[in-house]
Fold this sequence. Notes:
Belongs to the NAD(P)-dependent epimerase/dehydratase family. Pfam families: Epimerase. Keywords: Carbohydrate metabolism, Isomerase, NAD. This is UDP-glucose 4-epimerase. By secondary structure, the chain is α/β, with parallel strands linked by helices. It contains 10 helices and 14 strands. The strands form 4 sheets. A 7-stranded parallel beta sheet has the order 3-2-1-4-5-6-11, with helices on both faces. Helix 1 crosses helix 7 and helix 6 (190-198) runs parallel beside helix 8. The longest helix is centred in the first third of the chain and has 22 residues, at 86-107. The protein starts with a strand and ends with a helix. Residues 77, 79, 117-119, 168-170, 188-190, 193, 205-208, 219, 221, 259, 282, 285, 289 line the site of uridine-5'-diphosphate-4-deoxy-4-fluoro-alpha-D-galactose.
Amino acid sequence: MTILVTGGAGYIGSHMVLALRDAGEDVVVLDNLSTGVKSVIPEGVPLYVGDTGNETLTASILKWHKVDTIIHFAASVVVPDSVSNPLGYYKNNTSNTRSLLASAVATGVENFIFSSTAAVYGDVDMKPVSEDSPLRPMSPYGTSKLMTETMLADVAYAHGLHTVVLRYFNVAGADPQGRTGQSTPGATHLIKVAAETVVGKRPYMQIYGTDYPTPDGTCVRDYIHVTDLVAAHSCALNHLRDGGANTTVNCGYGRGYSVLEVIDAVKRAAGTDFEARLTGRRPGDPPSIVAGVDRIHETFSWQPRYGNLDTIVAHALAWERHLREKSS
Ligand code: UFG
């Protein structure tokens, strides 16, 4: 049986494809290459270029490759973009997933692992936040993912689909072996932006908001290494294959760092200083969000290996330097 990875040419998806290949699984990728990069797909892994919203295409792939599991990464993921372009986010994240699910049901796919997000929680009082906390997204991005979670639960109930929803906290870093990393042009995520500033791709970076109700006034996030996140997906796959119940699980380490602490870590790892300009708040940003991690440890035998912030930053920086060398 084969695993379909949507968004497999993207940042997290490409790490997943490598992990599945390393584990000897049969993998096929669907990616529209809007942000993904073809060159990160390992040789021998079939790549279909297209949208998850194209039911004719997805149903053919699922049938042709006898897919029994879908790991669904393909999505738009930038919080401020979703504020300015909500319809784009509801289309790509919610409606295209509806189409993919229709094909999955029609072709008898058994397992569906869904990339959700901590953005479904919004500004929560609970710190760290458990999976059962109220869901009040602060951005169309978070809402688009929450709508998909709801739809997935209904589809699972009606059609017996086995599902794991993984709510990612702030994903960062790169493959420790340097095989892939975040290549997306125009990236907006904090550690990526800071790494780009180190290698001179940007003259300076900005700090969005210094008046939040947090210890140093900047936002606090739970940064998770992409390789540990991918390992959580492998645990989810084993869980479903072993007949485990449908579940929703936070993916983070249970500890938060402020924007200033992250920037300090990047400066330390780089051994250089760079300019970080203080500016106003960015729309859609909750002040602080840290994962409650009881469920991930109770449900999976997940053993994170790269949780140290300095390691996350060092791997992100190594990948950024690699990209810089390749382009010069
Ligand atoms: N930030 C800056 N400067 C930058 C980039 C980011 O100050 O150049 C700040 C942001 O304002 C925010 C923090 O750094 O306070 C983290 O921002 P990111 O853009 O790196 O990530 P987000 O928290 O906005 O969102 C990410 C993912 C979501 C996920 C969320 C969970 O994109 O999918 O983390 O917390 F839901």
